[in-house]
Amino acid sequence: MTSLFRLCVSVPLLGVSAWLSACASDSASPLRSTLFSVAALESLGLPATLMPAANTRVDLSHLSASDAAAGDVYGSAVALSRDGNTLAVGADLKAAGRPGDGLPAAGAVYVYTRTPQGWREQARLRATVPTTGSGFGHSLSLSDDGSRLAVGAPFESHDGAGADAALAGDQGTVYVFGRGDGGWALQSRLLASKAGSFDWFGVSVSLSGRGDTVAVSAHRHDGGEPHARQADSGAVYVFKHGASGWTEQVVLEASNAQTGGRLGTSVALSFDGLTLAAGALASGLGAVHVFRQEAAGWREQAIVTSAEATRQNPLGSQVLLSADGATLAVGATAPDGTEARQRSAGSAYVFVQQGGQWHQQARVRASNADVGDAFGERLALSADGRVLAVSAAYEASATAGLNGDQSDNSVPSAGAVYLYAREGKRWSQTDYVKSQRTRAGDLFGSALALSGDGRQLAVGARLEDGAAPWSLGGFSFGERSQNSGAVHLYSRS
Asked: Which residues, including other chains, have CB under 8 Å from residue 254's CB and lie 6 or more apart?
């Protein structure tokens, strides 16, 4: 969507009263829960090396922004470090400045660390110069150790226009932050060398495990020669960090680039940063382009497709790679706002690399699949590629918690998350996760992240309403902060 449209959507939401301080305590206190019974944990079907002990307990934390306000959409993006102890949360419609007096939809990112007492906010990050509708926090990626963070602001204009200027541009920007002894600080502001209006550079970002390589998509980039432009063919930029800082290494385009191909709908890097997967919408069925860096430079290694893909379930809504780059998870659901989306239940695929060739290992679908659920729009994959989380943010069952009744479709767009595990070559759905506070329109599953071992799961619910300002005797009083957003965290230890 354009910045103008995002602004038109966000401004009415910002008219609701600001989040009151009585709600802020919810952002720091984990809610101890016996939601996952021992039997349910064992049913997760994890490989033996990941199977928790019989006395394992699972905790649930519910986070909201300490300065939450209506329309923030906190939880629109989430990222976890490999050890699961650092969490970043995007709120890309968060206003900058005072409510009613600042810049609407400027965006913000919240960084948390996990302590024995629960999750604690460590930093609140913004763009160098916040601008209306920039989408700062729309995409996030953390290095494995959690010390480096890439933040996409795909709708930011950088043509020199001031914050109060027209919203034309939307070239996009990526900010790279680092954590040191003094806290978090901006390290670099990355711009595309071939930036064009409405390229949306930064709509998806991926850091390598060491945090020294970052892939940035610009799926609305117009490729081709000046006299033979291919509108929205897409591109992926790769930046490397060295002694002189961050430098652009290469701009990748599809070998079969075509108008509307949109290479870079999603991007993912392997741990070493040498394998790159990029989703595309070419031919209407979707595909994933896999690039590999070799001695002679980057080359396109393969174009991964599936005979089961359809125009209602095209490949590429999200792509993820295991740490070794040998397992590829791909979401398959039609783009939001399309007629095909309304007819699509969605699915997800797993491909594995063998002998330099990619082979489809599995296609997974929801146990209660229904049209319009958008299953596969968001995914999360463990580092070893053996645990997969798939969300369906528009799923409508009324149940709450783990493995409840899936048959009551009376709460539209509440959202759900499905867990799958691989044993040998076989993938099975193991768990069905709902919010503990299921409500219509929350979009639970609008963002997903897993720790490296698959034991920590973060789920964004970007349209969840905040708590009422105060309550008494089980009754709530005052207006909730509508669409302020939340993140639900599940931890198995």
From this structure: 233, 234, 261, 263, 280, 282, 289, 300, 303
